[in-house]
UniProtKB/TrEMBL annotation:
Domain (Cysteinyl-tRNA synthetase class Ia DALR): residue spans on this chain: 36-91
Gene Ontology annotations of biological process type: cysteinyl-tRNA aminoacylation
Protein name: Cysteinyl-tRNA synthetase class Ia DALR domain-containing protein
Keyword Coiled coil appears in the UniProt entry: yes
Gene Ontology CC terms, in alphabetical order: cytoplasm
Main location: cytoplasm
Stretches assigned to coiled coil: 176-215
One Pfam family, short name: DALR_2
């Protein structure tokens, strides 16, 4: 119906083009229609007939997506046939459920179509203006109109990437179920994103706590590892290894490098408050860990 609204029959060139999908889709529609007729003649095999109707819908949808210039009469022919057969099978008691007939009901449907198209266009303009002005209130109202008010009326409004919108009439119950499912999925994704942020914060705070806890150690005591070294100078740098042998120049150079870094960290942590600052970092880590535990528990309950 979107194609027929925006590109009605005879409004543009409708001639079938060589090497296009027009001939192919026409053959597919004709084949499926013949198969429906055979199914009805075969002891009214409705199951097979409905399968063939589904084939028509699938083929036409594919045609409209793949064809550069889909022909409205072909689409209209298929839609009207499906509409007619659905009425015959009693799937719907509305002979114009798709709004394609030419009678009084068809005229009413055309009027409704024009109203909804005008409404969708107005909403597009309103959204564009709200986006330009960064008006979050108006944008929220536009979303609520799409996801709540129009859904209750059985109207699907779909916003496209280019800013335009398309509409279709659908079962309100099924539409609500779909909207609720999408909302639930967004909530799950938001929770997962928040949990990953908390995991990152816990990892960062853990490393930070380890760094500043280590930095609290007096530089003179920093390298006093008796399992590795045997003696030290007044600054705390090692002179000999644990076995009594004199420390090599390479090992001495590495020790000096480690000591310089530690002295820098020690000076910084003392400037930040020493032990009090480390306790603050530890509290922040515990808070993040608690938030992460709660987020994980909520996700587990939802999954269960």
């Amino acid at each position: 119906k979107e194609l027929l609204r925006t590109r009605p029959p005879y409004s543009i060139r409708q001639k079938w083009e060589e090497e296009s999908l027009d001939f192919s889709i026409n053959d597919q529609i004709a084949t499926a229609m013949a198969a429906v007729h055979e199914a009805i003649c075969d002891n009214f095999n409705t199951s097979e007939a409905m399968t063939q109707l589904d084939n028509i819908v699938t083929a036409v949808n594919s045609y409209m997506v793949k064809s550069e210039n889909p022909k409205a009469p072909l689409v209209q022919q298929a839609a009207q046939y499906v509409q007619k057969m659905l009425t015959i099978f009693g799937v719907t008691d509305n002979a114009d459920v798709l709004g394609l007939s030419s009678g009084a009901q068809g005229e009413e449907s055309k009027t409704l179509s024009k109203v909804l198209t005008a409404f969708a266009s107005f909403r597009e303009q309103l959204r564009s203006a709200a986006q330009a002005d960064k008006n979050k209130t108006l944008l929220r109202m536009c979303d609520e109109l799409r996801d709540e008010t129009m859904v209750d009326l059985g109207v699907r409004l779909e916003d496209k990437a280019d800013g335009s919108s398309v509409w279709s009439l659908e079962d309100p119950v099924a539409l609500k179920r779909e909207i609720e499912s999408k909302k639930a999925q967004k909530k799950r994704e938001a929770r997962l994103k928040e949990r990953r942020k908390l995991e990152t914060k816990v990892q960062e705070k853990t490393k930070e706590l380890q760094r500043w806890t280590k930095a609290l150690v007096d530089p003179v005591e920093f390298l006093r590892d008796e399992s590795k070294y045997g003696s030290w100078d007044e600054a705390g740098l090692p002179l000999t290894f644990a076995d009594g042998s004199e420390i090599s120049k390479k090992a001495r150079k590495q020790a000096v490098k480690e000591m310089d870094k530690h002295v820098k960290d020690h000076t910084e942590v003392e400037a930040r408050g020493g032990q009090t600052y480390v306790q603050t970092v530890e509290k922040e880590l515990n808070d993040f860990q608690e938030q992460l535990n709660n987020a994980t528990a909520s996700s587990d309950e939802e999954s269960a």
